[in-house]
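In response to reviewer comment 3 from the previous cycle, which asked for concrete evidence that the modeling workflow produces usable outputs, we include below a single protein chain processed end to end. The sequence was submitted unchanged, and the resulting structure tokens are shown without manual editing.
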Amino acid sequence: MSDIFKGPAIRVMYAQLVRDFGGVEAAAAFLGSTKGTISKETTGAMPVRTGHWGRLEDALQHWPITDMLDARRAPGRDGEATRRIPHVLRELGDVPAALFAYRETGDATPTLKEVNEAISALNAFRSAMGADDA
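The workflow returned the following structure tokens.
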């Protein structure tokens, strides 16, 4: 979502961070920005810069925008991984029979099909868990 920082929720929380920090002038001085830029960000005339809300959150030790963005992501990730479990188990369940069939017949084609489907299901599950880098 490319316009997330133009949305009203971010803008309202950012405006509160600016007020909590001491106002537009104090926030502008802290961020090395102009009062006009900070004011435009709080009114929606321009998108809120990530570096601006992030630095204010860190300075105030209060993370409303970060928490909101994290809450948007976490349920989708966890829910997607959980929804994939039955499919993964079905695909894995096909592998033992395919291995025994390979042992008996020596025909690799059906065995490779089942193994590749299981690997694909596991990779999708791993990705849904957010473990791509693990």
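Helices lie at 8-21, 24-31, 35-43, 50-60, 64-105, 108-128. We consider this sufficient to address the reviewer's concern, and the full set will be provided in the supplementary archive.
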